[in-house]
Design brief:
The structure is a single chain. By secondary structure, this protein is α+β, with helices and mostly antiparallel strands. It has two domains: 8-85, Beta Barrel (Elongation Factor Tu (Ef-tu), domain 3), CATH 2.40.30.20; 104-194, Beta Barrel (Elongation Factor Tu (Ef-tu), domain 3). It has helices at 64-69, 126-129, 161-166, 184-194, 205-210, and strands at 8-18, 21-27, 40-43, 46-53, 57-62, 80-85, 104-114, 117-123, 137-140, 143-150, 154-159, 177-182. Strands 1-2-5-4-3-6 form a six-stranded antiparallel beta barrel. Strands 7-8-11-10-9-12 form a six-stranded antiparallel β-barrel.
């Protein structure tokens, strides 16, 4: 799990291909401080597993479906990436709970200035829209953000200067693709409502009260 608070900006040094699979070698510094083989690191919001590392970079294998669903398919050597290590339970959750399993991608329609903030208008598809609510949480390229406005085919988020400085959003422009992960709570709630009445359960308010949950 992650929080959507970016720790540093890394750089792709190499993309290797082995059969249908690919691996990324990413130059970085902060996320290497206590790294171990098998650790999870969110790269532009995608949960990847460390397979190798040294003093200046780590390597992560990427399955074909991950490339197909994300903006990694358009990445090139030298491209900058948002990085975050997995959440430690002893730390504060500054953003929201993020799984690192993205729902798909969106495309930046426009970037406008509003006082000291930048407003990003992002196209979304209906499959993503159903999990979202206005002023709800969303993860874009691994960044925990709040939905400001929400329509059927797009949303807007307001980016404060601190977030611009510390993430790759500062380099984004109209037409660029971003990874999107909707809030976990929204996805679970949608699934529950879709299946309400289809699955029988013995759990009731009385059952919860008898077992000390209410």
């Amino acid at each position: 799990m992650f929080t959507g608070i970016i720790e540093e900006i890394g750089k792709i040094s190499e993309i290797k291909k082995t059969g249908k699979n690919k691996s990324l070698i990413i130059f970085c510094k902060t996320v290497l401080e206590d790294i171990k083989l098998g650790d999870s690191i969110a790269v532009n919001g995608i949960c990847l597993t460390v397979s190798k590392f040294d003093y200046k970079s780590f390597t992560a294998d990427v399955m074909p479906i991950t490339f197909q669903k994300s903006n990694l398919k358009t990445c090139r050597n030298g491209e900058l990436m948002n990085l975050e290590r997995a959440l430690q339970l002893k730390s504060r959750v500054g953003g929201h709970l993020v799984s690192g399993h993205i729902d798909g991608t969106g495309k930046i329609i426009s970037i406008t200035k509003s006082e000291n903030a930048k407003i990003f208008k992002i196209h979304i598809n209906p499959e993503q829209r159903k999990y979202m609510i206005r002023e709800g949480s969303i993860c874009i390229d691994g960044i925990s953000l709040t939905i400001a406005e929400l329509e059927q085919d797009h949303l807007t988020v307001s980016i404060i200067p601190e977030t611009m400085r510390n993430t790759i959003l500062q380099y984004k422009k109209s037409g660029d693709t971003v990874n999107i992960e909707s809030d976990l709570l929204g996805k679970y709630l949608y699934n529950f409502l879709q299946n309400k009445g289809k699955v029988k359960s013995n759990i009731s308010i009385q059952f919860l009260a008898e077992h000390g949950y209410v």
